[in-house]
């Protein structure tokens, strides 16, 4: 009788195998959800990158316009000064020219401030994109780890100890997903 399996052991093995299969199905479902989340994040990143590129283009255009306006204002100011000296206009004309130059300088300063603000915004967006790429890389790494664990789980033999250790790994990975990724 020592060589024959007892009735309870056969049931335990089939129950453990069915539990293991249920856990495997759950893990596959979690991996599918994780992959979908990664796809959604990738789409979100692409959208943000496109917005960032558009912002960069607008910022470049704004910089060029500001430079052109500054040069035009400077040329106008120089032309005014040259014509004032040649015509020997009264001091009232000088004051008007100075006032116009001051107005132009204020406009130029305002444009420079806008450019600085947009550059700061651009840098912030670049940092956000880098952080998101880092998060996605970490999640990809977790997906790879889970996939390899599942492949090992599929390849298990009938040895109960091996199955127990693999079940522990599955529980650990499930806890890891819940804690670090918010599942």
TL;DR of this structure?
The protein is mainly alpha-helical. 91% of the residues lie in helices and 0% in strands.
Helix share bin: over 70%
Kindly report how far apart the N and C termini lie. 49 Å
Mean pLDDT: 79
Q: What is the tally of helical segments? A: 3
The biggest sheet, with number of strands, parallel, antiparallel or mixed sense and barrel status, is:
none
Chart the SSEs and their pairings:
Elements: H1 7-87, H2 91-154, H3 160-180
Biased composition (Polar residues): 11-28
Region (Disordered): 1-28, 45-96
Biased composition (Basic and acidic residues): 45-56, 73-85
Description of the molecule:
- Residues 1-10 have a biased composition (Gly residues).
- Residues 11-28 have a biased composition (Polar residues).
- Residues 45-56, 73-85 have a biased composition (Basic and acidic residues).
- Residues 60-72 have a biased composition (Basic residues).
- InterPro entries: GOLGB1 (IPR026202).
- This protein is 91% helix and 0% strand.
- The protein is built from 3 helices and no strands.
- α1 (7-87) packs parallel to α3 (160-180) and α2 (91-154) runs antiparallel to α3.
- By secondary structure, the protein is mainly alpha-helical.
- The two termini are 49 Å apart.
- The chain has helices spanning 7-87, 91-154, 160-180.
- The protein has a single domain (29-180), classed as Helix Hairpins (Orthogonal Bundle).
């Amino acid at each position: 009788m020592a060589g024959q399996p007892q009735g309870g052991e056969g049931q335990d093995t089939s129950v453990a195998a069915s539990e293991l299969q249920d856990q495997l199905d759950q893990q596959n479902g979690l991996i599918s959800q994780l992959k979908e989340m990664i796809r959604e994040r990738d789409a979100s990143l692409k959208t943000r990158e496109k917005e960032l590129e558009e912002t960069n283009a607008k910022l470049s255009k704004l910089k060029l316009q500001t430079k052109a306006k500054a040069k035009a204002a400077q040329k106008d100011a120089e032309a005014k000064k040259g014509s004032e000296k040649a015509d020997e206009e009264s001091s009232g004309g000088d004051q008007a020219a100075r006032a116009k130059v001051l107005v132009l300088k204020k406009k130029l300063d305002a444009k420079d401030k806008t450019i600085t603000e947009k550059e700061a915004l651009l840098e912030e967006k670049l940092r956000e994109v880098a952080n998101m790429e880092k998060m996605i890389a970490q999640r990809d790494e977790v997906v790879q780890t889970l996939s390899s664990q599942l492949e090992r789980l599929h390849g298990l033999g009938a040895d109960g100890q091996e199955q127990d250790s693999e079940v522990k790994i599955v529980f650990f990975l499930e806890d890891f997903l819940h804690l670090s990724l918010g599942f």
